[in-house]
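Box 3.1 A note on notation
Throughout this textbook, protein chains are presented in two layers. The first layer is the amino acid sequence; the second is a token string describing backbone geometry. Keep the layers aligned when reading.
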Amino acid sequence: MKNSIFENIIAGSYSLVLHIGLVALFVMGMNTQTRPVMVQPHVDIVKATVIDENSILAEMVRQQEVEQKQRKAEEDRQKKVDKQLAETEKELARKEQEVLAQQERAKIEQQQRELKAKEQKDKIHKLEQERKVQEQKRLKAEQARIVEEERQQQAEQASLVAEERKQKIEEERRAAEEKKRLAEADRKAEEQRKQDAEKARKLAEEKKRKAEADRKAAELRKVEEERKAQIAEADRLLQESLAQEQREQESRRIAGVVNQYAILIKQRIKRYWIRPTGKSDDLVTTVKVSLIPGGDVKSVIIVKSSGDQIFDRSVENAVFKAAPMPWPTDPEAAAQIKELQINFTATR
């Protein structure tokens, strides 16, 4: 509705402005219409006594032509103003028609809005009535619910009171049982403490007795270990002495075997030695004989020559001829008899 009023005001204002413009143009047209002005001919005062009629006629003709041109220009301007005025009136009429059409549309729209507003108002009124009915129903239901809740609360309150009384009785019973249990626990704890103290005392005595026994046992073990160490040391010394004696006996035995076989080998070689004749009795040759297991000769080396090559060669030949040499069955003696150093002299 406010929009329609605003549009009507704008349309009326626009129409008023057009009318004012039209009147202004008309007034301007009236003011600009100039009346023919009689131009006073400029007459030179001639002092001559004779008037030139041709000049006067020519001037009058010129004045008439000027007036005709002015009238024609004024007529053209007036036609132009009339044309503009007609166009303005036509535009004004069109605008008035538009304003009337807008006013009519605004009126129709206003009626439609009023109708819609009435329908909306009726609808709102109907909805409000329905809302009031629903609200009354809701209030009744709410009151019934409140009454039911109060009844339930009273029942729950009574149940809670009974439950609290029952819980209180149960708590008192539990408290009595707990008190009895705590007293029993204290009694048992006291008994346990006494038992623990007795156990601790016995354990301390047992620990002390065991420590004393361990000390005595340690002393006995120490004495026994010292005795065993002395026995072991004596036995070790005895074993070392016996071993040394056995080694010495074995060495003497092996040396005896080696000496015995060395004599046998020397005797065997001398049996095969043919002494060169005519040689000095002072000749002496020393040879080193290397043997292999079984008694065969591996090599013969002249360690000390006699100075007589024939004499030395006879000794070498005798060694090779005497092979195989007597060989001991004892491996220790055989290991020492692998190399022998023998002296050969010219004298028997």
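The longest strand covers residues 284-291. Helices lie at 2-32, 53-272, 309-322, 331-336.
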